[in-house]
Amino acid sequence: MSISFSPAQLERFRREAKKLSRESSITHSEALDRIAIRRGFKNWSLLVKYSEALSAISRTEPPSASRNARQRYYLHGDVVEGEPRQCYCARCDALVDLSHFQPGNGHEDGKDGDRFLSSLARWNKLAPSKKGSRYRPADAENVLQHAAEAARAALEAARSPFHKWLERQRDRNDEVGDLACDVFRDKRFPVGASTRREVEDYLSRYGDHVISAVHEAWREYQEPPMKTLAQALAEKLGISASEAEGLVDAEPQELTGNSGEMTYSYLFDFTNHASPRLRAKLLEKHGSLQLEVGPSFFETVRDQVV
Fold first, then answer.
1. Phi, psi of 58, rounded to the nearest 5 degrees
2. CA pair distance 202, 210, nearest whole angstrom
3. Which residue blocks in the chain are alpha helix, DSSP H?
4. Cβ of 119: how many Cβ atoms within 10 Å?
5. Which of 106, 111, 152, 172 has the least CB density, counted as fewest CB within 10 Å?
């Protein structure tokens, strides 16, 4: 597969070169060449020449051919078929060498794996009509997938039952909901904390009002109120329990990674279950007739087994 870059990408590379030139005390042309080398070219001139040539070819392609051709859709970290040293970086919006994702060469914030898993989940639940001519092979190779799934599995295994319970409270409009949102924004929060004292010790720096919220959350956590599936769906969708009664027959579909070894979430599709009036309401409120929930959604749902 040939590598080419759009005019917008070339302009972004030029801005990167200006910054690199200032930071490294090199000439602008030297910085441009370094940018090109990172993208697999010997120098900047070859990168621009090749991109402009392929762009001219695409402009002369018959309209019918471009409309009917299937387009390979790449997720963050996907390896290019036939070119095992090339993969796609969604953050750079470019094809890069595999070394781009090695420590010291690419992004250092540790979010690449999560970005891939999130994009994979969105792609898997996308309706065929929304994918159009785009496709991604079921066995697509991804340079980030193995490590990302292992890290997520390790994090999930380390989470305490209280941390999982608190995750489900983030949509609440009260002190417990505020506490849940704050905890999940805090990347340093001890996810394995299994006693109230551990949680209090970590959050005590934020004041008495936070400790009060911890007390209330812990009280509810120890005695979780059970709900019907209709009540749980109503809370998630922002509709009445009576309206949600018509949705309880929708079968939740498991969403897993390519390996199929771990369920990340469940997807409800209400297309064939919502009344015309409710269908219109859900589309207006959420823009979709689908609802994705985590596995913990079912923990307090009465008589619901998945």
1. -65, -30
2. 11
3. 7-24, 28-38, 44-59, 63-68, 112-124, 128-131, 145-158, 161-167, 175-185, 196-203, 208-222, 229-237, 241-244, 276-286
4. 17
5. 111
12 and 20 in contact (C-beta within 8 Å)? no
What three-state secondary structure class fits 203? helix
Q: What CA–CA distance (Å, rounded) separates 287 from 221? A: 32
In this structure, are residues 306 and 298 in contact, taking their beta carbons and an 8 Å threshold? Answer: yes
Structure tokens at 9: 């990408």
∠ CA 44-50-55, rounded to 5°: 125
β-strands 79-80, 263-269 pairing: unpaired
| DSSP state letter for 78 | B
The residue to which tokens 């790449």 are assigned: 74
* Type of residue at 179: L
**Per-domain residue ranges of the chain:** 7-142, 159-222, 229-298
CA–CA separation, 20 and 262 (whole Å): 42
> What pTM does this model have?
0.50
- List average pLDDT for each run of 10 residues in the chain, which is 306 residues long: 65 85 88 84 81 54 54 91 86 83 73 90 89 90 93 91 92 91 92 94 92 94 83 91 92 77 83 93 91 84 63
Evaluate whether 265 touches 294 at the Cβ level (below 8 Å): yes
Whole-number pLDDT of residue 45: 84
Cβ atoms of 46 and 36 within 8 Å: the answer is yes
Encoded tokens for 43: 């120098």
Residue 189 CA to its chain's centroid (Å)? 21
